[in-house]
Amino acid sequence: MSKDRITVVDVAEAAGVSKSTVSLVLQASPLVNEATRARVQAVIRDLGYVYNRGAANLRQSKSRIVGIVVNDLTNSFFAELAVGVDQVVQSAGYVQFLANTGENVDRQREVIASMMEHGISGLVVSPARGTTAQDFKPLVAAGIPVVIVVRNIAGSKVSSLMADNHGGVYQAVEHLAGLGHCRIAFLGGFADTAVFAERMQGYREAMEKVGLGVSDDLVIGSAPSRAGGVDAVGRALSLADRPTAAVCFNDAVAFGACDGLRARKLEPGIDFAVVGFDDVIEAKAAVPALTTVSVDPQGMGGRAAQLLLKQINSGKAEAEAIVTSVRLAVRESSRGGLNASGRKSA
Amino acid sequence: MSKDRITVVDVAEAAGVSKSTVSLVLQASPLVNEATRARVQAVIRDLGYVYNRGAANLRQSKSRIVGIVVNDLTNSFFAELAVGVDQVVQSAGYVQFLANTGENVDRQREVIASMMEHGISGLVVSPARGTTAQDFKPLVAAGIPVVIVVRNIAGSKVSSLMADNHGGVYQAVEHLAGLGHCRIAFLGGFADTAVFAERMQGYREAMEKVGLGVSDDLVIGSAPSRAGGVDAVGRALSLADRPTAAVCFNDAVAFGACDGLRARKLEPGIDFAVVGFDDVIEAKAAVPALTTVSVDPQGMGGRAAQLLLKQINSGKAEAEAIVTSVRLAVRESSRGGLNASGRKSA
DNA sequence: CTGTTAGCGCATTCAC
DNA sequence: GTGAATGCGCTAACAG
Asked: What domains can be seen in chain B, in order of their start residue?
């Protein structure tokens, strides 16, 4: 059917003009006669011509394509993030390469290399665990803007967009203290990530600030998963001086904590307040008794993309670190839980 | 810092060979001396050369990039699908453009056009609602393989990969009948989609097959949402001749049905059996009493990608329609529910 | 085995 | 306003 790919010269001779004229109407230049423009466009349409952006990119050595690599698209949080990026990227007339690494650093290296070969003009990446600043060397060497989202990589001289981990946990602690809780635990998470460090720091500072101080037995690590939460809350409840509330490393842990409470016939939010950090976003329709520190992944994606585009258009800006605010989402059923259980303290 | 982009000629003269030689080592041709290959590769490495796939694509007029457009990446089902595609696409050395349409046909048209301009060599698409065969005309005209997933488009002469909607519901009905249910309703969904038609047909045929016949009052439409499910189950329960079980259009409806049951102090799976079709996949950790017809979206994505790659490599094959099987996932707590409630019938 | 010669499809000076 | 050259970075024949 269709012979070979039809090009500008084809439409040029079919319209009785030269290729440059065609090129001009293609980019909507005002330098071309209205009549000829119409004629050319007609020919384009019924000849079924499709613009070859690859050739154009080659010629101008720039492309309107960006890369986005996420560590786990299966996680709704990152899916939403990708949607956020997609939205602004699309409206800006860009198209995106998307790759999922599944937390595999080697795969990540490969896809980034591949994307570079394809001439992406920018990259937003939520790094796989184990990513080092090294991994972005090629990008920065090539002067390609990069914005890291969600997880920070120490020492990488690229931009980053992070949720306010510190502030979120800080708010959570203040909220619980305001409810009258005195023994507030920190549940779940592994200490080897930057995110954990930030949230932990928020916990410590807030506990000091509200005058409760920090005792190490209230910090109970576990896997950042639902099972980990069950475990952690179990250990918390078996402490001699039982906590009455906890802020959890993330929402998975928080769900687990609720599971653990119910298994002991305790009602989350009434008998024991729990606050999660809204990472995984299962939260959407979940546990009504759960207060969460909630971050808007789609919004983050959008902002990340905007930042990236800004850098692309400004010919390369220097690294910029921006922190997106979070808000505490307090559910009805978890308000004033302390009074209800009669466990209010001095 | 980095001057302009470094090219094959740069490495060529740095290595003291010609560009073609460089080109040959780039494609790992065996036609080049081991010594020179090593030298060239060394130069490539420490010159920081990056291959320009765009130029290569232009030259060979083919690209190792495929497009994938989904209607709602926010829905875990499609996110998983995308991951499935990504996986096989990546291992095949391809990279993917991903675009989210948000059920917007115009946006879909735009992104497909954009992808064509970028020279994708294939497309997998889960069409936005309202997509017509027309929308794929440009693709087929250009000889670009397309595989439609999840939702079929009548009259489009492209390949498709669909879940076994008919068979799934058929199995579900058989299952319920096997448990002794005689009044089995079909809940939720709008009649204007192909998917609905297929599932409905499965219901009808199975009801005939097991000798229960179909009475129209047992077919209760509603929005394919959780709220719709609540509504539908309510209407079902107020029927004169109450059904004892239902198969739902999808899992959202099924969840709603369970909500509705509990609101009436009925226990799903015990007092009333409900079977959902696992579209939205919230199901993962959800209602234990719920039996679902489950489809594996990631697997579907993988198969779709494989089909696409096959067609790409075989220089374009004709349209192929394949149906992926589904299986009934029966939860422990929903087995034999009928007996437990003493509502067993003749 | 390696170097030479030509374009892939387009955008961009420059003349006309 | 429009047309004729030139080259983006690479591969694909052929020569050597």
From this structure: 3-58 (1.10.260.40), 59-163+297-325 (3.40.50.2300), 165-295+329-334 (3.40.50.2300)
Read off the DSSP letter of residue B127: P
- Judge: A119–B52 Cβ closer than 8 Å, yes or no: yes
Q: Tell me the range of A191-205, B31-45, B80-94, B178-192 where mean pLDDT is highest.
A: B80-94
Give the span between the Cα atoms of B328 and A84, in whole angstroms. 35
- Alpha carbons A12 and A19: distance in angstroms, whole number: 5
Place of tokens 């059923």: A333
Would you state the pLDDT for residue A315? 83
For residue A298, report the phi and psi dihedrals to the nearest 5 degrees.
Answer: -65, -40
Q: In the structure, how many helices (H) and strands (E) does chain B have?
A: 13, 12
Q: Which regions of chain B does DSSP assign to beta strands (E)?
A: 65-70, 95-100, 123-125, 146-149, 159-163, 184-187, 219-220, 245-248, 273-278, 291-294, 321-324, 327-329
Cβ <8 Å between A54 and B51: no
Mean pLDDT calculated for residue range A121-129: 96
Report A:224-283 residues touching B (Cβ under 8 A): 282
Distance CA A296, CA A81 (A): 8
Q: Amino acid letter at A301?
A: G
- Sheet with A219-220, strands from edge to edge, namely A219-220, A184-187, A245-248, A273-278, A291-294, A327-329
**A207 with A174: CB under 8 angstroms?**
no
> Three-state DSSP class for B173?
helix
Q: What is the mean pLDDT of residues B38-55?
A: 93
Q: Which residue has the higher pLDDT, B13 or B285?
A: B13
User: Please, what is the average pLDDT of chain A?
Assistant: 88
Size of interface A-B (CB pairs under 8 A): 126
pLDDT digits (tens, 9 = 90+) for B140-154: 999 999 999 999 898
Query: What pTM, to 2 d.p., does this model score?
Result: 0.90
Q: Which nucleotide is nearest to B21 (CA to C1')?
A: C2
Specify whether the CB–CB gap between A99 and B86 falls below 8 A.
yes
- Our measurement of CA A20 to C1' D3, in angstroms, reads 8
